[in-house]
Amino acid sequence: MVTMKKIAELCGVSRGTVDRALNGRGRVNAETAEHIRKMAKQLGYEPNPAGKALAARKNRPIIGVILSSEGNAFFDKVIEGMKDAAREYAVYGLQVDIRTMKGYQPEEQLRLMEELQPEVKALILNPINDARVIAKIDELVAAGIFVVNVNNDVDGSKRHCYVGSDYYNGGITSCALLEAMIGRSAEIGLILGSRQVLGHKQRLDGFMHRMQRVENFHVIDVIEHEDDEIFAYERTKAFLLAHPETTALVSLAAGVYGIGRAVMQLPKEKRPMVIAFDSVPTTVEMMKFGVVRATIFQHPYRQGHLAVDLAFAYLVNGRMPGKQEYILKNEIRLLENL
């Protein structure tokens, strides 16, 4: 096992100098510090876990989390993944402070970011694609806070990395799946949370792009419901009453239970085919009722766990993400393979 003492002997410095160079504590000549780091890497040096845990506890690593999760059951599994990861790293003194909000109001998200900024060294954010939020992300990064965007990204921020699905591919996949299940003719209602959410817009764009290959697919309208089940029910019900010719509904976000309840008010022979995203309990219930025919799964538990993993690696090990995007595959799920 390679020790600090061994590195110190090979570099001709004291063990204390090696400790300061590798852990960023105190002043060390830049050239000497670089030599020590190269030697440590060459020898495959790994810090003692117990010592690292002790050092981490002294530094009080705190990760803030802001999620637009209230009323959206998808995030239950995201939060479960985050909490499980936090328990795994508890020996290092890691704390995870989760704040939630309802809907997509930039002002509320900015308020929570301001509230957490003085307390945290890393922030995991489910961001709203708003210029003010993007500017705030950049401000936090400039202040030395590690930022992970989870489940959704934004246009052009300086965040350290993104963890989530490929939304554009999800839109393409949902259109291809609809074609495979319904044939080459459909009168379609597209339903999403908000175009203020980059992922929702990307799914919409992906669906519309793939639809160009299907001559007799026609989108009647695009409905937005703020990921609110009541709005989803009311707006889907009004849409179906206004457009009895509808043969398919594609839910590109949450709100599937509300959509399903609206569909169930129609006679069975007049119900459109429904394709959704995610497999929250209420969506599974709608699949058992035969209302939702298929769903596209995007690994919420893994999204939450991985986001905390990456923040922990940075705060405790000083390790930057290996890539800008950590994409979890879109997977088609039927009732039979849930």
Automatic annotation (TrEMBL):
Phylogenetic placement of the source organism: Bacteria, Bacillati, Bacillota, Negativicutes, Selenomonadales
Transmembrane segments: none
InterPro entries registered for this protein in UniProt: HTH_LacI (IPR000843), Lambda_DNA-bd_dom_sf (IPR010982), Peripla_BP_I (IPR028082), SBP_2_dom (IPR025997)
Natural source organism: Selenomonas caprae
Keyword Transcription regulation: yes
Protein name (record): Substrate-binding domain-containing protein
Gene Ontology MF annotations: DNA-binding transcription factor activity; transcription cis-regulatory region binding
Domain HTH lacI-type: 2-56
Keyword Transcription regulation: yes
Keywords: DNA-binding, Transcription, Transcription regulation
